[in-house]
Amino acid sequence: MLLLMLLLLLCLNINTDFSEIVFEVKLKRKPGFYITNIIIPVILLSILNTFSFVLPITSGERASFSVTVFLSLAVFLTIVAATLPTNSYNVSLLSVFLILMTVSSTLIVDLCLVEARLAI
């Protein structure tokens, strides 16, 4: 390809004294994949996690339900960490969002366990 370009330049007697070439590239990211596969399920899991307070305090399902939601959020965090490129300078907003949801789920698990202990 390069040889063809040189031959073309020599045949046409085109002046090749240019010092730079400028390209303009416009890229646009479409976030639909992350919204439908990560953000919406995590929001739904967080909403479900608040419904653990509707279950009876003395039932063991309350704690197991909130722990299950916590584990599923941890799986989402693992998937995002494996998908996104590793960079220690900038943390993605998606990772921060998942960490905040995991922290809130941890607090809900703690509250459920404390309430179950106090109810006995």
UniProtKB/TrEMBL annotation:
Domain Neurotransmitter-gated ion-channel transmembrane: 38-109
UniProt signal peptide: 1-19
Record GO terms (molecular function): monoatomic ion channel activity; transmembrane signaling receptor activity
Keyword Transit peptide found: no
Source organism superkingdom: Eukaryota
InterPro entries on file: Neur_channel (IPR006201), Neuro-gated_channel_TM_sf (IPR036719), Neuro_actylchol_rec (IPR038050), Neurotrans-gated_channel_TM (IPR006029)
GO CC annotations on file: membrane
Protein name: Neurotransmitter-gated ion-channel transmembrane domain-containing protein
Species the sequence originates in: Dreissena polymorpha
